[in-house]
Design goal:
Radius of gyration of chain B: 30 Å
Number of helices of chain B: 16
Oligomer: heterodimer
CATH superfamily of the largest domain in chain B: MetI-like
Number of strands of chain A: 2
Radius of gyration of chain A: 24 Å
CATH topology of the largest domain in chain B: MetI-like fold
Largest sheet of chain A: 2 strands, antiparallel
Low-confidence stretches of chain B: 1-20, 22-32, 98-134
Helix content of chain B: over 70%
Mean pLDDT of chain B: 78
CATH architecture of chain A: Orthogonal Bundle
CATH topology of chain A: MetI-like fold
Strand content of chain B: under 5%
Shape of chain A: globular
CATH superfamily of chain A: MetI-like
Largest sheet of chain B: 2 strands, antiparallel
């Protein structure tokens, strides 16, 4: 018994430590493999040229720009809505009231829905219902312009997907604004809206930024929601209108590694594209972490 | 909030005065409670009015902004409802293909939620029409063959369900022990410096887009697994499960760690004071106390694993075989939607069945999340209150 205990004394921390280090090891291994295989293919040329020769050569510029436009429209749509929801939850209604509970429940549910279901929703609602509805009103039944997958509907779908991310980070930031500041503002005769604009929003601007960055990072990486709401395999030109389709980094990786005409020959491109996407999301996440820790430091007086 | 509370207080003060009068009336006349309350309200209004006039002026801009904010705040609720309606609407047409057409022609597309009301009368007509036309009944969905594209298409969901649970279970079996013990390590054993390495690394892993993990699975994990196990098929449920475990380790780790850290310090101190060693405290005191949280973490991990699309789409081989063999290629529900939705004709049976799978995923993940939240809240409340 004593022997067993002595053995366990080292085994339990040892095993749990091993588990922790195995996670680190796997992450390091994956990043290393990616760097070794991806970096040789990475060049300025690769980042700034379009795919050539039936996607077996050339760069990924359209995919980068497509991803950029996607997250841009997504943020323009999603961030204000998320911010306003967070403001409403923490400034306008009593905590613990039924309204708060209902909205929290909705946000939690949104966060838990699989991304592919968002894709279906985008297809069923934005493309089929809203898009075709607009077409019917504008062009009768003659032309289908909005009732097909495009960058606008993909961004909208992504905005709904990333809404919980924004709401949670902004709420967290609003909580760091001291109550005294708000009370002082109200005591000086400012209305509630004035207090929000002059006191609360400046106080949580970094939180809004964190939320935006996290949402962008999530949006840039997700592929499932845009599969049938706007992404394209290959496009000869860049998207120039809301009704255009677009290319995206994530989808490019998927399509190149599974359905490319010559999978083995394009392995270098695949690695490099993956590296670019990973660096992108990684740097976004890092920025968010830094901004957030600064925010916490600033307000911990 | 501030001026309201003030006015309420003033109202109360005035109300006390009024109450003296009303009480005397009530006492003389016997039981007349509704009248009393009505009078009270009246009195309150009368009392509050002059006070409010001085205090609160009506600000139209403020009012409009408040309403706008209120409406926007309900956007996420609206999204949930819209997702529910639109996914289930498209899915429901597999059962009521003809009925939908009839209903649309009669009273427009607004009656989707009311099939139960109008359905009974129409169902007989539907049954007649169904027999001649290609249609789908519920029992067809329970078949064990998924052959959507053929002359005689079959939409049995059993292989897809089995595939989803097969892969998710493998992922959970791998991810659960690793992440729970890693969380135990960082919360009890690890020195601060190591803690500050482990957590960010897990966060980095959590930030990996799923398509990147899918790519790793396709290229690296699949080859490794084939070499180690000598498998016939390069892509199979095991490879998908391993890749999926990478995606759910951050989920389980983060929530378990929170749960472990939330264990009251007094528990640990009591255990140590009774002479238990550190590992005994960790294993027999901290871990059991954090069980509800860990359970929630597992449920959420499971939900994520079942709903994950890109990883399984790239790594499981996508053959719809009804099997629980971990070394066989499988096709999951999410991957089926991802792979086939782009190629279906809008509105036909295949399209509806894919939406039905989506609705199923929605329900499964919702139930998992909901259980995780409510069960845990109850358990935690009971434990620490």
């Amino acid at each position: 018994m004593i022997m067993k205990k002595k053995y366990l004394k080292f085994a339990v921390p040892g095993f749990s430590g091993l588990c922790a280090f195995s996670i680190i090891a796997v992450v390091m291994f994956l990043i290393l493999v990616l760097l070794i295989n991806g970096v040789p293919h990475l060049s300025w040329e690769f980042l700034t040229s379009a795919p050539e020769q039936g996607m077996t050569a050339g760069g990924i510029l359209p995919a980068i720009i497509g991803t950029f436009l996607l997250v841009l429209i997504m943020s323009i749509v999603g961030v204000p809505i998320g911010t306003i929801t967070a403001l409403y939850l923490s400034e306008y209604v009593c905590q613990g009231s039924r309204v708060v509970k209902i909205i929290r429940f909705a946000v939690n549910t949104l966060a838990g829905i699989p991304s592919i279901v968002y894709g279906l929703f985008g297809l069923g609602f934005f493309v089929q219902f809203v898009g075709l509805g607009i077409d019917k009103v504008l062009y009768g039944n003659v032309m289908v312009k909005w009732g097909q997958p495009n960058i606008l509907w993909a961004s909208m779908t992504m905005a709904v997907l990333t809404l919980p991310v924004v709401i949670v980070s902004v709420e967290e930031a609003i909580r760091t604004v001291p109550r005294e500041l708000r009370e002082a503002s109200l005591a000086l005769g400012a209305t509630r809206w004035e207090t929000i604009v002059k006191i609360v929003l400046p106080g949580c601007s970094q939180g809004i930024m964190t939320g935006t960055i996290l949402a962008v990072s999530r949006g840039a990486g997700e592929v499932a929601p845009i599969l049938f709401t706007g992404v394209a395999y290959f496009l000869p030109h860049l998207p120039s209108a809301f009704s255009d389709q677009f290319m995206s980094l994530g989808y490019h990786i998927y399509i190149m590694s599974t359905q490319s005409p010559d999978v083995a020959a394009t392995r270098g491109i695949q690695y490099a594209t993956t590296l670019v996407l990973l660096l992108l999301t990684f740097s976004f996440n890092m920025t968010a972490v830094i901004v957030r820790s600064r925010m916490r430091k600033k307000h911990s007086f | 909030m501030w001026d309201i509370s003030q006015s309420v207080k003033c109202g109360e003060l005035m109300n006390n005065e009024m109450q003296l009068h009303t009480e005397s009336i009530v006492e003389s006349s016997g039981i007349d409670y509704p009248l009393l309350s009505a009078k009270k309200e009246l009195a309150e209004e009368k009392a509050a009015e002059p006070v409010r006039l001085g205090k609160k002026t009506f600000r139209p801009v403020e009012f409009v902004i408040e309403r706008l904010i209120q409406v926007t705040a309900f956007f996420s609720l609206a999204c949930i409802i819209l997702i529910f309606i639109f996914v289930f609407r498209e899915a429901s047409s597999i059962f009521v293909v003809k009925e939908k057409v009839i209903e649309e022609s009669v009273d427009g597309p607004q009656t989707y939620g009311e099939e139960a009301l109008g359905g009974e009368i129409l169902e007989e007509e539907v049954m007649l029409q169904e027999e001649s036309q290609e249609n789908l009944r519920f029992k067809n969905l329970l078949g064990n063959r998924w052959i959507p594209v053929s002359l005689n298409p079959q939409y049995g969901l059993i292989p897809l369900l089995l595939g989803s649970f097969n892969v998710a279970l493998i992922a959970l079996l791998i991810a659960a022990p690793i992440s729970i013990f890693a969380a135990l390590y960082t919360s009890t054993f690890a020195p601060k410096k190591i803690k500050e390495v482990v957590k960010p690394v897990v966060e980095i892993l959590g930030g990996f887009p799923s398509v990147v993990i899918g790519f790793f699975a396709l290229i690296i994990i699949a080859s490794l697994a084939q070499q180690i196990f000598g498998l016939q098929y390069r892509l199979n449920a095991l490879v998908g499960g391993i890749a999926l475990s990478l995606a759910i380790i951050p989920v389980i780790f983060t929530i378990s760690e929170d749960a472990l850290n939330a264990v009251p310090h007094s528990y640990i101190e009591a255990s140590l004071a009774l002479g238990a060693q550190k590992w005994e405290t960790a294993l027999f005191v901290v871990l059991p106390s954090a069980m509800p949280g860990i359970f929630a973490a597992l449920l959420l991990g499971m939900g994520r694993a079942i709903g994950e699309t890109m990883i399984v789409l790239m790594a499981t081989g996508n053959a719809a075989i009804a099997t629980i063999n971990p070394f066989s290629p499988v096709r999951t529900m999410a991957a089926t939607i991802g792979a086939e939705m782009a190629e279906v004709v809008f509105g036909d049976v295949h399209y509806s069945v894919l939406f039905f799978i989506g609705a199923l995923l929605f329900v499964i993940s919702f139930l998992l999340n909901f259980t995780a939240e409510t069960v845990v809240r109850k358990l935690v409340m009971r434990r620490y209150s």
